[in-house]
Each structure stands twice: as C-alpha cells, then as structure tokens.
Amino acid sequence: MRSAVAAVSSSCANLPPSTREQGFDIWVSLLAKRGSMHVEEAPHGYEPGNILVTGAAGFIGSHVAAHLVYHHPGSTVVGLDKLDYCASTDNLREAALSRNFVLVRGDQASSDLLLYVLRTHAIDTVINLAAQTHVDASFHATLQEAVRTTGTVRRFLHVSTDQVYEPTPPEKEHGHSEAARLQPINPYAASKAGAEMLVLAYGTAYHLPVVIVRSSFLMGLQLIPKYLMRALAGQPLPIHGRASDYARSFLYVEDAVAALATVLARGEEGEVYNCAGTERTVAQVAQDVRALVRMASGSSTAVDIQTVENRPFDDGSYRIDDRKLRQLGWRPRVSWWDGLRSSLAWYRDHGRQHWGNIAHVLGASHETEPPALQPPAS
C-alpha cells in the first residue's frame, strides 16, 4: 500500500489530464478502502508472461487490470479498449499508476492492430472481456484468428454470462451446471452463446488453449445500478410486474476478479466454469436498497417501491451452480450486505463527480440532494 502511494508522483503521467487534475484524491481514498483486495496471494498454478486484457476500460476490465498489475509486477499488462459509451479512462486510475500497464486505444475487430499488439508486447496470455458486454464484439473471430496466427499465446480466458442458459425453472433445486444445454432467449444472450461456440471451436480445431468463465450479475464500485441511485435521490424503485419474484445471482466485482484469477491459474484448457454469487429476487433487492438507504441516512421515511407494467419481454430467473469453480479453491469473500454498503457509500460520495449528470440514466429528473450517508462499517 505504501509503495503504491509513493509511486503516484512518478506514474501519474500515464493518466489522462482530467484524471490527474480531478481524480487523485478520490483514487487515494478508494485505494485505501479497497486495499484488502491486494493483500491476498494470487492463486498458484499457471504463471502468465505478458497479458492482453480486452475491454480493459470497462467496469470488470479495469478491476482485472488493477489486479494483474499488482499480482504480476514482472508482466506487462496491455489494456485494449475502443473507449466507447461503456468505457472510461477514469476507470483505469489504479492500473495506470503502475509502470507495467499500457493502454492501447483501438478496436479488437482490427486484425492488424491485434497482430501488432500481440507481437510487439510478446503477449502469451489473453483475457477477453470485450465480448462480455458488447454484442458486436461477440460475432468477431478476429482476436482468435490473431492468436492462432501468432502462435505464442499459452492461455486464452474468455468471459461470458450466465444468460447463455435458459431461465431457471422455480422447481429446479440447483442452478444450471456447466453441462446444461445453452438456450439463450434474447439477442444479447444469443450473441454470448455464439461467441462461446466460436472460442471453443478455435480451441478444438486449432488447439488454442481456451478456458471460459460464465459470470453472474456483478455489483461494485463505478457501475451505476438504478436502484441505488434512485434511492439516494429519493425516487421510487420500480418493479416490472411479474419480475418481482425473478431471482438473480449477485457477485461483488472483487470476488469476480478473484474467480477469474483462479481460473487463469488453475482452470483446465477447454473447460467452462460458472461463477455465482448471492441469490436475491428483484423484490428483495429493492427492499434491501430501500432499507439500507433509510438506515444510512437516518431518515424516518423510505422511498416507495412501485409495481409498474410488464416489459414487452421478461427473461425470468437465472441461477447457476458453481461447485466446479469452488473445487479450484475459489470462494466469494464479500457478502451481499457488505458489497451493497460499500457500493452505496461510493455512489453517495463519488457518483456525481465520476459520472456527471445521470438524470437520463435514472429515468427521471431530480433536483433533490441525496441524504447524508455514513461510511460502511469496517
């Protein structure tokens, strides 16, 4: 921790001007709060050389990059991102403070760019996060083809979603295992399933050393969940008709990063690993957020929870079985409530400065200042 802060003055040149001028104090406070992520040892097993992280400026990608530069100081970590609507260099404050981090702005659909990056930086490990949120990135085999062409990559970790499965029937005792049939029911999920098939096909046909992780819903710093921000603004929390009883598995982002690190180190080539968290229904999430904001603000009133009309499309509950991943030694460490408290504190203290005006994201304008929020209990 001390050495990381001491390195700030010499490494800030890696940060964009807006971040150097406005974000330093926030970063230092966040690093102090999040330092616990770095005290755990990295899992033993596969040792990467130089690492390419696609989608590095996104929510999960930036946390992965920060983890890698700390735990693999002898490796060069190259972040590739086209910096579109769901990415920001502000997310990379922590990673950019390290001398072994390089950010490349570009589109992974460019084969020339990929070949240049893979060869110039002698990449032997790829973590593909760009296809986790982008539908268009899912249909490209450009990255796999570049990896096949160079022939130097020893590990290709592809990150997918639990939505490649069909919704989980209420009567099913356990969630879907990795062996369950893929049956996506919306275009986003179909693109993720297709991307997985493409990755696995390259593994089979060209012996690419691929491993896949299917992750549940993520929560954590710097991602805007509407419920948290609406509750802080005193706005009602909407539940769409039948969605009240739909269940989701929620995983704190640092636990997700630890899961990826575990699979990178110990996962078997050609295998798929589910990564799950705490299961909550939509109604439970709304109730928990309402209760936490009320308790943290000391208010005697609570925001309303409103049932609104159904969406044109409902996707049901998603539950997955992650016993296979747990056999590698991974366990989630951040509880639902601790993760929710930490996230809420961050949004209250830093959300507006980080995101700017988010009224359009909340779905309604508001002028009310959110109530005071106490820091989460240690």
UniProtKB/TrEMBL annotation:
Matching Pfam families: GDP_Man_Dehyd
Family annotation (InterPro entries): NAD(P)-bd_dom, NAD(P)-bd_dom_sf
Domain NAD(P)-binding per the UniProt entry, residue ranges: 52-341
PANTHER family membership: DTDP-D-GLUCOSE 4,6-DEHYDRATASE-RELATED
Protein name per Swiss-Prot or TrEMBL: Rhamnose biosynthetic enzyme
Organism, as annotated: Klebsormidium nitens
Source organism phylogeny: Eukaryota, Viridiplantae, Streptophyta, Klebsormidiophyceae, Klebsormidiales
